[in-house]
Amino acid sequence: MTDAKDRVDVAIMMGSKSDLDGMRPAAAVLQTLGLGVEVRVLSAHRTPEEAAAFVRESTARGVKVFICGAGGAAHLAGAVAAHTTRPVIGVPINASALCGLDSLLATVMMPAGMPVATVAIGCAENAGLLAAQIIAVGDAALAERVDAERGARRRKVLESDAAVRAELRPGPGEKIDGKRGA
Prior knowledge:
The protein has a 5-stranded parallel β-sheet, sandwiched between helices. It is built from 6 helices and 5 strands; from the N terminus they run βαβαβαβαβαα. The chain has one domain: Rossmann fold, CATH 3.40.50.1970. The chain has helices spanning 20-32, 48-61, 76-81, 101-108, 124-136, 140-167, and strands at 10-14, 37-41, 65-71, 88-93, 117-118. The protein has 182 residues and is an alpha/beta fold.
């Protein structure tokens, strides 16, 4: 049996180290929810054998979900999906003159039989949350933590709403901009 601190639930892969800052939010939210994470830089084009070997080894070790961030041609998520039947979530990275649209299209346009879930350009945090939700289907304790995370986000929005309403509630004879009406 693997020690809990060594357990890897989600493997996060990226095609280049330059993608690391964009992928950090996925790792952070997963770790906050108590999931084990392994992060690797492996390219679908420059290190295809190493990427495939990592996916096969990770699947054998019990990794439940793969998150793949890539820019430009963004073939990493598809390449990973070719080597596992575990869920794969693609994160298109804004790394070109097309502002990530090329990455989005390359990630989302998978052939039939090779599904890759895809989040918005640069939305690695959502990829982490989606991975947690997928794993939570079979883990009641994790499901409770995911629900608590969602509740915390809800409360934050409601607090912001109350603050904005209080700030912009005009008094008698005032407009919202704070100036007296004519």
